[in-house]
Amino acid sequence: MTDADKIVLFHCPNSRSSGTLVLLEELGAPYELRVMNMQAGEHRQPAFLSVNPMGKVPAILHGDILVTEQVAIYLYLADLFPGAGLTPPVGDRRRGPYLRWMAFYAGCFEPALVDRAMKREPGPTAMSPYGDFDAVMSTVNTQLRAAPFILGQEISAADVLWGSALRWTTMFGLVPETPEIKAYIGRITGRPAAVRVREQDAALAAQHKT
Questions:
Q1: Does domain 7-85 bear CATH number 3.40.50.300?
Q2: Would you state the pLDDT for residue 1?
């Protein structure tokens, strides 16, 4: 593996970067972890702020290419390893829905979730990027009732993103665990890659407590 091929993931265990680690495992991608202790605030120190001034993980380096922002990273990595079959190629009829659900996650789901968690009103409909929380969750549940995965019968990188997010948000009571969401979480987070990452994160988190 050359430096040009290597993907460096800046990672804090049990955070948003855990989903990116699952994706790397699903893709069979060569990677190196640069683990930070979130409890000690290492992600807010100058060394990482020079990578991402937001102080947020995930972030990746691919050679000299830096990519931040969770959805951008998923799109970049899945396109980088098309042989894994986790991204519909340009021209595939599933490409539009795939991009839609990636953008919906960042533009609607996360803002709605944060407003709900902070007990904030979303603001006037004309100004809200997502409308209202119930509409967002109704859209998600309707999609998950229709098929096993976001795009139908085959898993994609979008499922790695949504499966990880829904696991955490239902665990903390931020999202209602409907039957379709519960079944979906089981399908995605029960996969070997997700299990490996949870075990690895548990070991890393234990080290950070000592």
A1: no
A2: 47
